[in-house]
Amino acid sequence: MGGNHEPGSLGPDAPLSGLYDACIHCGLCLTSCPTYRETGDEAMSPRGRIYLIRALEEGRLAPSPAVNVPLDGCVGCRACETACPAGVRYGSLLEQARARYVEPVRPRDARTTFWRPLIRQVLPFKGRMGLAMLPGKLVRRALVRGGKAPAWLPPALARPLELLPARQPAAPALPVWTPAVGEEKGVVAFLEGCAMPVLYPAANHATVRLLARAGYRVWVPRAAGCCGAIHLHDGDLAGARARARANVAAYERHDVAAVVTNAGGCGAALHEYGELLAADPIWAPRAAALAAKAVDLARFLARIGLPAPTRAVEVTATWHDPCHLVHGLGVRTEPRDLVRAMPGVRYVELAEADWCCGGAGSYTLLQPEMADKLLAHKIRHVRETGAQVLVTANPPCLMQIGRGLEQAGTPVRIVHLAEFLDSFYA
User: Fold this and answer.
1) What contacts 24+ positions apart, CB below 8 Å, involve 34-37?
2) Are 218 and 184 in contact (CB under 8 A)?
3) Residue 302's closest CA among 181, 393, 398?
4) In whole angstroms, what is the distance from residue 12 CA to residue 95 CA?
5) What pairs with residue 390 in β-bridges?
6) pLDDT tens digits for 211-249?
7) Average pLDDT for residues 373-397, to the nearest whole number?
8) Is 382 helix (H, G, I), strand (E, B) or coil?
9) More confident call, 117 vs 417
10) Are 75 and 374 in contact (CB under 8 A)?
């Protein structure tokens, strides 16, 4: 079940049968799969993809670009894990299969050639990403109107410009140490990530303020960086392991009560470090120790409690579940409870709140047609709520849904959970 599986001992050369043998082919995953709903194609379902992976692993099917289509076409939302009665760890299976069978024969088309070097060598590094975003932000301001880039721009340039947040206020770097407000209850670390400091720095600052208000001294290690999720989901396990080792080393320098994350994808990646480095006898126990301390912001705040808000904001709000937050970590009720608890908030539930919006890390760039189909469902449901604010907690969701709302001309504002909660304190 999503959020409840234990790290395994799957090494880089271990047979994938250890992951797919649990599948009982019941088909309960089909109705939870976004790509199956859109296509009606069994190959585009979790069960169908497991059949393909089994055939590849057993040598009955040869790796090919044709086989890549359904495996690359998976959005990786892991809703099937939540639905699965047998506890199949489909996310781990897909990541391993992409590394073994998809990546070696992936066709080098224009989209792949343009985006994959950027996805792997630029986006995971906040310094490089910040430099790359500077011209993008300027061009977006000049050319994008109503969330749409000019038709004469090639899609490979138009889409990322549209995905950039419309409002991008600058913010200073987070301090390495932030003192607790009032009596100190303990020390926590915060993973600022790679995308958040560049695209949503205000959410990171709000996160640190919330933790400090709750009585915790906050450490933001400069040596920490990308969690590795971008590499992991793209079939680059070596890159993901390198990022995991770097972060494990960074967070070992101080003893902290928790390592807090405010992005669903990052939190899920940290939780699986033990499995990712399980075959490395030096790093495995250290990775497992970090994974045990990793906790999502909403779950941590729900556990420790926030001080009473100092102001009320009359607003109608709803919540979108980031896939890896709800299906990977099992965090579902905590953010809703936090939003509802704010004075002046009228909370309305979003239909299919836990269905993928199509953002999914790099998916919206590499699979734009399917991503837009998934986005259309999400925007329709958001508009049906009548909410003024949509709250969520993952950068791809903020970018993807933000783009959809802007293009739809809806006045709904999308905001990170940390910024939303922080707004209730003067």
Assistant:
1) 34/75, 34/77, 34/79, 34/355, 34/356, 34/358, 34/374, 35/73, 35/74, 35/75, 35/370
2) no
3) 393
4) 11
5) 318, 414
6) 999 999 999 999 998 998 888 887 788 889 999 999 999
7) 97
8) helix
9) 417
10) yes
Measured between alpha carbons, how far is 327 from 66 in angstroms, rounded to an integer? 28
User: 126-143 and 155-163 helices cross at what angle (nearest 10)?
Assistant: 100
The 10 Å Cβ neighbour count of residue 115 is 18
Task: Give 154's pLDDT tier (boundaries 50, 70, 90).
Answer: confident
Amino acid at 139: V
Per the listing, tokens 């906790």 go with 295
Q: Which two tokens stand for residue 342?
A: 């704010």
Instruction: For residues 70 and 310, give the distance between their C-alpha atoms in angstroms, rounded to a whole number.
Output: 50
Give the DSSP letter of residue 366: H
What angle separates helix 110-121 from helix 155-163, to the nearest 10 degrees? 40
Residue 155 tokens, joined: 């899609």
Mean pLDDT of 313-331: 97
3-state secondary structure of 87: coil
Look-up of token digits 């995905």? 163
First and final C-alpha spacing in the chain: 40
Triad 407, 412, 418: Cα angle to 5°: 115
Single pTM value for the model: 0.92
